[in-house]
Amino acid sequence: MNKKILTTLTLFVSIHAYADTGYYKDFQVSTTKNLVSDYSVNNYDSKNDTPELQKAIDELSKNGGGEIIIPAGVYYFMNVELKSNIKLLIDKNASIRPYLQAMYDKGGDAIFNVGEFNKDVVKNIAVTSLQKDQRFTVQLPTITKISGVNPKNRFRNVYGIKVFHFFNVENFLTSNINIYDRHTKYSAMSLNAVLSDKNKKNRGKFPTNGDVKNITIFNSAYGYGAVQAQAASNIFFDNIESQGGSALRLETGYAPMNNMKLGGVSNIKANDIRCLNGSAALTLSPHTIQTNSNIDAHNITADNCNFAVRIASGYVSSNDTTKGLKPGIFKNVKINGINVFFGYRSQILHKDFSLLSKKLQGYIYRTDNNLVSLAGPSIAAVGYVSGPGKPINYNVSLKNIKMHGFKSESKEIVSPKDKGQVYTLEK
User: Fold this and answer.
1) Strand partners, 238
2) Total domains present in the chain
3) Considering the domain boundaries, does residue 261 fall inside one?
4) Is 85 left (phi over 0), alpha (psi -120 to 50) or beta?
5) Cα dihedral 304→346→136→78 (10° resolution)
6) What CATH code is carried by the domain that includes residue 112?
7) Residue 366 belongs to some domain of the structure
8) What's this model's pTM, rounded to 2 decimal places?
């Protein structure tokens, strides 16, 4: 089933190639270690392998850097702190899994964490497959343990997991990964600004000069997906696909970040961003952040999704407590090449399905993953969305839009003024 989904998504890649060298620059290291043979890791048990991997990273980084080969097998990691001049080369037959008990006992929410607490910027990081053009696997389990943080919200009250959480890091690569999710909370990769009181020296620092390539996530929850960037600059996203959720979310909506007026995404290049049975391939949502600018995206494809591109207005939330905050915006956004395929199994928020006609609203039904989304018909190629009575407060350049399976009179671009007027039944 998963192989079929992956093939389906891949078929929707635009035939118009978009060549770009990205921002990451490869770096050379002189030392190579094997996690099994050099650090005595048993790669076929279910024990925590984090201490051994952390020891390897610490030793190599302290001595100028190196590459760590993770051979075929099964590994359990949690809260691994990547450091400067480290390459993780993971075998295509390796399975990386979170060691959940460490998360429950010590906190943290990521398998790999980069630059949140380091005194200096972390430079030169690569996590990729050992074999060129092959992919290693990350498997995320169903997480049911209760966190107690949000007792009134069933889904948000469950622990969530990220594969990567990047903060103060410069020159990085993550690539060639298949992620098998179980509708867990959070996007698989998150790019954020340092906010912790434990690292005030670097507060506000965020990821720069990175490439995120060749990543697919399956069974993702609504509102999450493959990647969310809340704070990042000079990042190239290439060949990112998500079954469920949003493949690439440029969404700066974390309340503490809004209140500190930190974060924002700028100088972002994206190519071949795809979504199946989800919300949208590409999401723009600024919340209160004003510093989002220079987004250049090509070949955005959605099949059986709410939209291919979801453009949310900026707004001030009740969770934003700083006085004088204004609705955020995006500046200088160009999206070229949008393909959307109609279907009946898109993930829809309540505030979005009101765009559908009454007839089409009859096709909506609830999902079974404890989320606040519904399942129902695709709406349009592009959706400008906002809260009730809230204006659209920025515009995006959109070129070469193609719709497949929609009625000929269907709109390519919809906004709140189209409430109850979208007729997108298949031909």
Assistant:
1) 213, 271
2) 1
3) yes
4) left
5) 170
6) 2.160.20.10
7) yes
8) 0.93
> Which tokens belong to 295?
């987004």
Coil, helix or strand at residue 257: helix
Residues 6+ apart with CB under 8 A from 313: 327, 384, 385, 386, 387, 390, 391, 392, 393, 394
The boundaries of the domain holding residue 146 are 2-12+88-418
- Ordered mean pLDDT values, 10 residues apiece, the chain (427 residues): 44 50 94 98 96 98 97 98 98 98 93 94 98 96 86 77 97 98 93 93 96 97 92 98 96 87 96 96 95 97 96 87 91 98 87 78 69 80 79 93 86 81 48
At residue 244, the 3 state secondary structure works out as coil
Decide: 256 and 192 in contact? Cβ < 8 Å: no
Q: Are 187 and 138 in contact (CB under 8 A)?
A: no
Looking at residue 10, its amino acid is T
Report residue 422 as tokens.
């979208």
By the 8 A CB rule, do 301 and 248 touch?
A: no
Q: Is residue 75 part of a domain?
A: no
Is position 57 within any domain? no
Total residue count of the chain as it appears in this document = 427
pLDDT for position 371: 53
How far, in Å, CA of 398 to CA of 384, rounded? 12
